Amino acid sequence: MKIKQPEIGSHLEPGKIETVLSDPDFIVEDSEVNGSTIAGESVERLRIFSSTVKNCDFSNTFMDSVDFTDVVFNNCDFSNVKIEDGSIHRTEFRNCRMTGIQFDKMNFGNVLFEDTKMNLSSVVTSKLEKVLLKDTMLDSTEFHSSQLKQVEFEVCSLNDMYVHDTPFKSCDISRSYFDSITLSKEDMTGCTISSSQAVTFAGLMGLNVVD
């Protein structure tokens, strides 16, 4: 699946995320951010546009009304972060630590998660469209009451993933792997799976498969 890439200019100025703590109206734009930290803070209206963000620490932060558009996050720590009431578009998360992250009432469009650890994360009451998760750990991740459209899980670990009231129609998990997953028949209708996964799902539903 092809998704739109971030639109970032070639001339970026050095920037810092910490400025938003003293100036709520501050916007990170056309910036190259490296090594910033707002760990453990509560931040409203964090806006990052057309920028690269590397080696930054957002862990244990509460973020409200974020807007990330045309951003590449590389090697950043989002562990145990809660993000709600915001939007993330044309954005990439590469080699990031996102264990325990909570997305609540979020909108995602053309977003890439690659080589990222997202175990124990949750997505609640959110909308995801054209989202690619690649080589990403999603063990014990939960999806609740969300809308997914053209979401692809490519070579991801989905073990013990829990899905409730979140249809996986038009989603593709065929190249990912799991031993156990909780996904109702209604939610999995229309989801693309592999033949080996079909056998696993049959077993989880109590069906006996014979040759």
What's a quick, concise take on this entry?
The protein has helices at 19-22, 185-188, 195-204, and strands spanning 13-15, 27-29, 31-34, 42-44, 47-54, 62-64, 67-74, 82-94, 102-114, 122-124, 127-134, 142-144, 147-154, 161-164, 181-182.
What's the topology here?
Layout lengths: L12 E3 L3 H4 L4 E3 L1 E4 L7 E3 L2 E8 L7 E3 L2 E8 L7 E13 L7 E13 L7 E3 L2 E8 L7 E3 L2 E8 L6 E4 L16 E2 L2 H4 L6 H10 L7
Parallel strand pairs: 1-3, 2-5, 3-5, 4-6, 5-7, 6-8, 7-8, 8-9, 9-10, 9-11, 10-12, 11-13, 12-14, 14-15
Write a concise keyword list for the protein shown above.
PA_immunity-related, 5peptide_repeat, elongated, single chain, 15-stranded parallel β-sheet, mainly beta, Pectate Lyase C-like, Pentapeptide repeat-containing protein, 211 residues
Structure write-up:
By secondary structure, this protein is mainly beta. The chain has a single domain, classed as Pectate Lyase C-like (3 Solenoid), CATH 2.160.20. It has 3 helices and 15 strands. The protein has a 15-stranded parallel sheet that branches. The longest helix is centred in the C-terminal third of the chain and has 10 residues, at about 195-205. The chain is elongated. The mean pLDDT is about 95.
SSE arrangement, N to C = EHEEEEEEEEEEEEEEHH
Task: State the CATH superfamily name.
Answer: E3 ubiquitin-protein ligase SopA
Number of strands: 15
Query: Major sheet: size, sense and barrel closure?
Result: 15 strands, parallel
Beta-strand percentage? 35-45%
What would you call the structural class? mainly beta
Our count of domains comes out at 1
Gyration radius over CA: 18 Å
From the 3D structure, determine the CATH topology. Answer: Pectate Lyase C-like
Oligomer: single chain
